[in-house]
TrEMBL record:
It is an enzyme of class 3 (hydrolase). Keywords: ATP-binding, Helicase, Hydrolase, Nucleotide-binding. It holds the Pfam family Helicase_C. Its EC number is 3.6.4.13. This is RNA helicase.
Amino acid sequence: MKEIETLGLSEEITKGIVELGFEEPTEIQSKVIPLLLEEDRDLIALSQTGTGKTAAYGLPIIHKTEVNEGHIQTLVLSPTRELCLQIANNLEMYAKYVRGVNVVAVYGGASITGQISLLRKRPQIVVATPGRMLDLIRRKKIDLSNVSRVVLDEADEMLDMGFKDELDAILDSTPDERTTILFSATMSPEAERISKRYMSEPVKVSVGRRNAGNRDVTHQCYVVRRDDRYAALKRMMDMHPDIYGIIFCRTRRETKEIADQLLGDGYTADALHGDMTQSQRDAVMGRFRVKSLNMLVATDVAARGLDVESLTHVIHYGLPDDTENYTHRSGRTGRAGKQGQSVSIIGKGDLRRIRFIEKMINQKIERVPVPDAKTVCEKRVGNYLQHLIELDTENTPAEEVMALAVERLQELDKDELIKKLVASKFSDFFTYYQNAKDLNVSGRDSDGRGRDRDRGYDRNDRRGDRRERGGDRVRYSRFKINVGKRDGVNPLKVIDLVNEVSPHMNVEIGKIDIMSSETYFDVDQNFKDHIMGAFKGSQFEGQSLSISEEKERRSFRGGNGGGRGGFNRRDNNRRDDRRSNYNSRPRRSYRS
């Protein structure tokens, strides 16, 4: 008897999941399934994605579904359309042999009319994204008055995406006596608030340490100059020709640039970002899932809710603003007992944050050297030769063709033939790496621009970028944009927005004030017209931006004359400072 058959699930469910290949429950399934089968009680489960959590709550839900009752009994909330569809599909597969179970998925980016029609067919289980569910509630097109169970899948992700108000409104629309099941990779303060407000004495289950990383993932970092990040990325990928992974970038612009560079270098890659339509996003994800793409280049927001099996690598093209996002990113590899790698490409100024992340995930992030050109070439050629040795020759061309090949090549001796074979395959590759430099930052380097910057910025940056030593006064124009704290804005994201619309410019920013629903910031008035024009039509995490100029003007002294201004704002990595009022000094943009 398989261990999965001893969990107490119905015969019909067991038959379906055994057919799917389930034999032995994962750790989270072993802990959660018996609890949910035993009694209806609130439960908090801390578990990384890819640990089998959908089955952990999904199988008991199906087991407890009353198929003769035509009302919604279970509501599952998930952060994204992709995850919503995947959960619904999994539940349908688990219930293959359970007659009468009706599962409906409702989500944004699709016709609400069609989804309303499906809801009229009286499903017992509804899987939804928060925005679409709240829309249906407000339209009075869904009845949650008889819901017995609410599952919050990836609660931390939903809260990070700004769905706090939606979750509150949805939970307030369900009966007080319902059971609430919360699954999360981490337990943020907002997730704690949800549990205290909407759950009663929940049982707590944890797989691994709270906020910890997956033990099947090894963590490494390359420390390089900013200008060398792409070269380091390419070397790492050239060392692993069978790589299949996600590269995380901080901005939409960066995802496009990196994807284009990878395509130019012969890799199958595409970008995933907030400016894409749903059909474009679906097309990219479809190609990635079937491995027509070996690399997906994505922002954190665009990648939320993605669940792709067998990823070998997650690459951080710079560390995320929110340290917990490191855990979310890395958790996408090393699943189902397979080993995965999480690789960060950083500057020396990021080492302090690396140490902080190590404490959070309770794992070592090993600093490893970027491989030199000789190592990369030897590894790539070695992989190719091993492939040749193992190549199955049963399906070779017709005998006449092979005879011609033998006849034409027999005049060459073995050594010459091998040289020609390798040269024909790797000529361009060897040319690329000829005279390639060492990319590693030495102990005296600091991201390629002076002394050690462990304190967060390089005082020597003032020499090249500052105003004249006399301390010319920098005049600022003040602007207001229509996003604020509740939209996830922080000072670094404001800086990123300016960088994104001002490539290769040295735009200096002064004071930043972040309110609940709007943000004020000062910019060197020489760039006033550019900023006004560039922000029009821009978006912040999918929300259209509007910008207006305020009457208030301020001036700060630049250079040494001002005492504190003039450092390169792109290199200030003291990101753990989340103060909304960012007054301390003017900042300059940096573009490599």
